[in-house]
Amino acid sequence: MSLFKRLFNLKGKSENIKKSSEHGKYFPENKLPIDERFTYNFNKNGGKFLYCENNEEIMEAFDNILLENDWYEKDTYCFNELLIQKFDGFNLKFDNSPKAAFYLSTCESLIADNGAILLSSNQIKEKKLNELPTNFVIFATTSQLVETISEGLRIIKNQSSKHIPSNITTIQDFETEKEKEKDFMSYGSITKNLYLLLLEDL
Q1: Which of these, 65, 106, 107, 63, lies nearest to 82 by C-alpha position?
Q2: Which of 25, 54, 153, 171 is buried deepest, with most CB atoms within 10 A?
Q3: pTM of the entire predicted model
């Protein structure tokens, strides 16, 4: 996962992607590795990416997010008891209110092909995305990277053979409203201000 150590040096990679798209349709596709593809697409979508090699870096990055947004002592929307315990030392008020400052959660998978976050009722219960706060902080690991949504759905099915979670959805529109207006394909989607805390576990 050396990609994440040089995460913010993506300009050259995006230029290479552009150049490869200029070839004819029969030219072999120069496909980026899964981690590079996810990073490129996630950043293109407007997500904020924080790669961490260990738990200490996760805590430091989370602290920086709280400081940047003035979220200390603010209501935090979170269903996950393990995350509540993990981040209990940050003086947050865990309260499942849509008016909370931000939503803290895990996810099912990170989708490389479109830079999306795959969620299910395991994370959001039966809530719709527009019923959750505008600000998201997602905690994930590098082992959750998958190529496509289909692969992510297959993992959900394999891990939950007795009870497949409902309310499966993806979130991939992290851009501002102004930027969103430029792309008619985004019409009707829910825009979120999203931070991804990604822990190296491979």
Answers
A1: 106
A2: 171
A3: 0.80
